[in-house]
Write a structure and sequence with these properties.
- By secondary structure, this protein is of the alpha/beta class.
- The chain folds into 2 domains: 228 residues, P-loop containing nucleotide triphosphate hydrolases (Rossmann fold); 168 residues, Rossmann fold.
- The protein is built from 15 helices and 14 strands.
- It has a 7-stranded parallel sheet, with helices on both faces.
- It is globular, with a radius of gyration of 21 Å.
- Bound molecules: adenosine-5'-diphosphate.
- Adenosine-5'-diphosphate (ADP) binds next to helix 4.
Length: 433
């Protein structure tokens, strides 16, 4: 019974209280930036850097895998943070969505990890959703290609807890643990997972994860099970002044790579428009766009599970090559849909904010906010699903009432951008890659 409860503790984004804004107010915790919190720190702007990966003095096996991945130059966040991470410094790292934060912790921990050390696991990575955990495991696999003795395992809710117990008991030599906090906290509490030898503790999307009280409590359980002396690395594209003191509780004398000005978080390579439209007119507009626009892959965001179901079913039944993903689905189904989209078997995804952060699907070049996001963080993360690593993209937000208008103008104010009404004639070269 206790085991069952533990396995159901996982939370998804839709459970997050900062997404729903009942009184129509917006941006209540987001209109400031982390650098105000520590003025003396390094200010990093995310952009593609001209340094070489070989300058980072990495193991030849890693350099080979980086080359195979097609990475030519480290992005600025990578060039700045990988050397600090390899030195063992704690890190609080903010950089634009899609500019390679994942590789910072994957490459640096693989560089430092010694699989022959009998004291394992030495790396733990926490992520807020199962899809992100899955994606991060894939990145570890990608870069450990020539380091075959390094082992990793994934732990998240929605699959049998007993399987995790067997997995851990059969493999005491696991080097890297990746998972969502609910399941990992349960494994720690039940004394199945021992973390006494962890040397690197990583929280991705840390603002989201630490902001949410129940998730923070789960993270604390895991954190407290690790040794006091370890490296802690925290990552997000959005770090508000409010979340920084909480982040600081986890790190010691960290290197901070922060963005000093919200305008610098703007994804300039993504063309951004809005459409003023009634709720009743949305579907017809969307169908017209799907029928007339050229795109590689497209994500359509809605605000609730019900709306995802309604729109996803409609598109599927009308023969659009679409999938949907939301927290109301079985875990196995969710991962299958994610993989279907990732592998390009489907070109259209209808999603809730479950898919709004961190997900990296290279070919997505159009994002549609079928429902207007409630705040500017949500907007930024959603449109950042397109135009990954500086590729071109288009983002269109449908605005149907006064709250939507307010929310969109808050986005424009915060990022100092002008989102124009969609023109009649669209220049598709602006988002063709
Ligand atoms: P973030 O976490 O900052 O949003 P990701 O780590 O998901 O970004 O990286 C976004 C995309 O960019 C991924 O597809 C990744 O493989 C790719 N990428 C990351 N770093 C590089 C690089 N140096 N060169 C080329 N592509 C990169």
């Amino acid at each position: 019974m206790a085991l069952m409860q533990a396995s159901e503790e996982i939370l998804d984004y839709e459970d997050a209280d900062d997404v729903v804004v009942p009184n129509g107010k917006h941006d209540h915790n987001l209109d400031d930036h982390a650098l105000d919190y520590m003025q003396e720190d390094y200010v990093g702007e995310a952009s593609v850097h001209t340094a070489e990966f070989k300058d980072l003095m990495l193991k030849p096996e890693l350099l080979r895998a980086i080359q195979d991945a097609g990475f030519k130059h480290p992005s600025e966040v990578q060039a700045n943070c990988i050397p600090k991470a390899v030195l063992g410094m704690d890190l609080v790292c903010q950089a634009k969505s899609g500019f390679g934060k994942t590789a910072v912790f994957v490459i640096s921990t693989l560089q430092e990890l010694d699989p022959s050390d009998p004291n394992q696991p030495s790396v733990i990575v926490l992520l807020p959703t199962r899809e992100l955990a899955f994606q991060t495991a894939a990145q570890f696999k990608r870069f450990k290609k020539y380091l075959p003795s390094i082992t990793l395992s994934l732990f998240f809710g929605g699959i049998a807890y007993e399987k995790d117990i067997t997995n851990i008991r059969n493999r005491p030599d696991l080097n890297v643990i990746i998972g969502t906090p609910g399941r990992l906290a349960a494994l720690v509490r039940d004394k199945i997972l021992k973390l006494d030898h962890v040397k690197h503790f990583i929280i991705d999307e840390c603002d989201k994860m630490l902001h949410q009280e129940d998730m923070r409590a789960q993270i604390k359980v895991i954190f407290d099970a690790t040794p006091a002396k370890k490296q802690v690395m925290l990552f997000s594209a959005t770090l508000s002044k409010k979340i920084m003191p909480i982040c600081e509780e986890f790190v010691q004398d960290p290197y901070r790579h922060l963005v000093d000005d919200c305008a610098k978080l703007t994804l300039k390579h993504i063309v951004q428009y809005y459409v003023k439209i009634t709720e009743a007119g949305k579907l017809e507009w969307l169908i017209h766009i799907l029928d007339t626009l050229e795109y590689n892959q497209i994500i359509i965001f809605v605000n609730t599970v019900d709306r995802a179901q309604m729109l996803g079913t409609h598109l599927f039944e009308n023969n659009y090559p679409s999938v949907m993903i939301h927290s109301g689905m079985e875990q196995i189904e969710r991962l299958a849909r994610y993989q279907q989209f990732k592998s390009f078997s489907s070109r259209i995804m209808v999603a809730t904010d479950l898919f709004g952060r961190g997900m990296d699907i290279e070919r997505v070049n159009i994002v549609i906010n079928y429902d207007c996001p409630f705040n500017s963080d949500q907007y930024l993360h959603r449109i950042g699903r397109g135009g990954r690593f500086n590729r071109k993209g288009l983002a269109v937000t449908l605005v149907s009432d006064e709250n939507d208008c307010k929310n969109l103008s808050a986005v424009q104010d915060r990022f100092d951008i002008d989102i124009a009404p969609i023109p009649d004639e669209l220049d598709e070269t602006l988002w063709a890659n």
